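Reminder to self: tokens first, then the designed residues, so the page reads top to bottom the way the pipeline ran.
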């Protein structure tokens, strides 16, 4: 198991910035081009505000969720339409749960192929991590992919992957929920460079075990997240599409706010 974890935590060779996919995997991704054109979707974050929402209200909506959303599945039975994992710490800490989690569509960077069960509902995408590498020309410079069969760009948060997926799939209205945009590193946490290890319950997510005792996570670097959110906002709006923030509270003010309850009841009509 320790050897497996070490393999997961070093997903790219030194000097390598982009993973590749086979022609078959590319064909699978091409099937999503405008598959949900002119539809709306909800991209679910993992902040504490998510506990203010009964996710089962969204059972007939298209939804993206990530990482340890399976805690919500255990709690209330909710499952997203699309499920995505980017972070290697999340993968190594939750590999069994991730592989056994059944939803309509599961997406992973192709460099994780050896660890993920490749079922018919599993899709691997070519992933570019240049944003994270200091020696790369695009270090800390947001790039947004319009063709996921060619590449998806890292952008400090798995939400950025979801936004690129949603764009390619043709979604017109994107609603963010549970995006609190507010992290506090507990004083008790063990910090080693950009990696943080928790020694107590997680205060930053909807479940105390999300990044609970013994789990590792990366410094969220909200400034870098904001750079990428601005790029996504610009990309969507340039094609007359829009990202809205329907989170109950939180500190993310870049996107136009809408009231989640009114939206679901059809009262908050978007023009």
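Designed residues (271 positions):
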């Amino acid at each position: 198991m320790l050897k497996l974890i070490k393999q997961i935590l070093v997903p790219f060779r030194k000097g390598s910035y982009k993973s590749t996919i086979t022609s078959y995997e590319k064909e699978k991704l091409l099937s999503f081009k405008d598959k949900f054109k002119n539809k709306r979707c909800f991209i679910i974050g993992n902040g504490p505000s998510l506990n203010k929402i009964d996710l089962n209200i969204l059972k007939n909506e298209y939804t993206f969720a990530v990482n340890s959303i399976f805690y919500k599945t255990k709690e209330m039975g909710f499952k997203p339409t699309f499920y995505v994992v980017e972070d290697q710490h999340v993968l190594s800490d939750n590999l069994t749960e991730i592989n056994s989690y059944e939803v309509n569509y599961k997406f992973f960077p192709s460099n994780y192929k050896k660890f993920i069960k490749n079922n018919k509902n599993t899709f691997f995408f070519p992933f570019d991590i240049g944003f994270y590498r200091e020696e790369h020309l695009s270090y800390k410079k947001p790039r947004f992919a319009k063709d996921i069969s060619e590449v998806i760009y890292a952008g400090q948060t798995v939400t950025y992957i979801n936004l690129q997926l949603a764009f390619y799939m043709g979604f017109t209205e994107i609603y963010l929920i549970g995006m609190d945009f507010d992290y506090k590193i507990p004083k008790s946490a063990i910090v080693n460079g950009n990696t943080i290890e928790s020694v107590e319950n997680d205060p930053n997510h909807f479940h105390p075990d999300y990044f609970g005792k013994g789990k590792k996570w990366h410094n969220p670097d909200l400034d870098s997240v904001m750079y990428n959110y601005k790029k996504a906002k610009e990309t969507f709006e340039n094609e007359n599409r829009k990202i809205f923030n329907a989170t109950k509270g939180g500190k993310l003010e870049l996107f136009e706010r809408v009231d989640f309850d009114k939206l679901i009841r059809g009262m908050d009509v978007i023009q």
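The mean pLDDT is 90.
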